[in-house]
Design brief:
Blueprint: H1 2-14, E1 17-18, E2 34-45, E3 55-64, E4 68-79, E5 88-93, E6 97-100, E7 108-112, E8 122-132, E9 139-144, E10 154-156, E11 163-176, E12 186-197, E13 202-203, E14 206-209, E15 218-222, E16 226-227
Antiparallel strand pairs: 1-5, 2-3, 3-7, 4-5, 4-6, 4-8, 8-9, 8-10, 11-12, 13-16, 14-15
Length: 229
């Protein structure tokens, strides 16, 4: 919890604060109406299958009622807030985009996660705003977590905590059977552990055993911590 708070405090200094306080507008000069379509999330990466994605795509399609329009977008993020009273912070700002009519061919997406800023493990709300590329303070349209449940309370974590660990193989070696009766008094258990995702995870092994007639396993030993590369 302290780490999450610290990271969010750092984010508050490096990201520009902005509020969700405008609605869809019509450009007074061109009379063009700007609308947002196709907002959806996909491309989730959740290697450890804990329900928190270390990467996803925020898809969007901005349309104009006639002709073309130069715009740019900002994507805001906050810790999920059912009361809708907390502030969004700027997560991403695009370069100018030319949109034309209602075609879906100009649909785009923003990567949430690498190569953009990674977020600490939590649920997040998103805010998507379209700005006029010529009049850069003019907001043309927006959609927020309050308006669309698909971008509300999205579970996200960073890649360092999204790790899938598997035991590729395990075998006994160096058995000692002094009397040759098939029962060993000593053996070495070798384990090949692999990981997918963040490189360099530190883990340890716990070894349990039980008699074949018993129902429950009992802990018999722990390994020293080691790093998977």
């Amino acid at each position: 919890m302290q780490t999450t708070k610290l990271i969010m405090l750092v984010m508050s200094f490096i990201m520009t604060l902005f509020l969700a306080n405008c609605q869809k507008t019509i450009d007074p000069e061109t009379k063009q109406e700007i609308t947002i379509k196709g907002v959806m999330l996909d491309g989730f990466s959740d290697l450890d299958e804990d329900g928190y994605a270390s990467y996803l795509r925020f898809n969007f399609d901005v349309d104009v009622s006639s002709g073309s329009k130069n715009v740019f977008i900002k994507l805001g993020v906050r810790f999920t807030d059912p009361a809708d009273t907390s502030t969004y912070f700027e997560y991403f700002e695009s370069s100018p985009i030319t949109i034309e009519g209602a075609t879906s061919e100009d649909a785009k997406y923003v990567s949430v996660g690498l190569p953009n800023t990674e977020l600490p493990q939590a649920g997040y709300d998103f805010l998507f705003i379209v700005f006029d590329a010529e009049e850069t303070d003019t907001r043309l349209a927006e959609i927020s977590a309050k308006d669309n449940s698909l971008i509300r309370n999205i579970p996200i974590e960073n890649s360092a905590t999204d790790i899938a660990v598997t035991i590729f193989d395990a075998w006994f070696g160096d058995e000692v059977d002094n009397d040759g009766d098939g029962y060993v008094s000593q053996a070495t258990l070798w384990v090949d552990v692999d990981e997918y995702g963040y490189n360099g995870a530190e883990v340890f092994l716990a070894l349990y055993d039980k008699l074949s007639s018993a129902s429950d396993y009992e802990l018999i030993g722990l390994s020293d911590p080691f790093v998977i590369n």
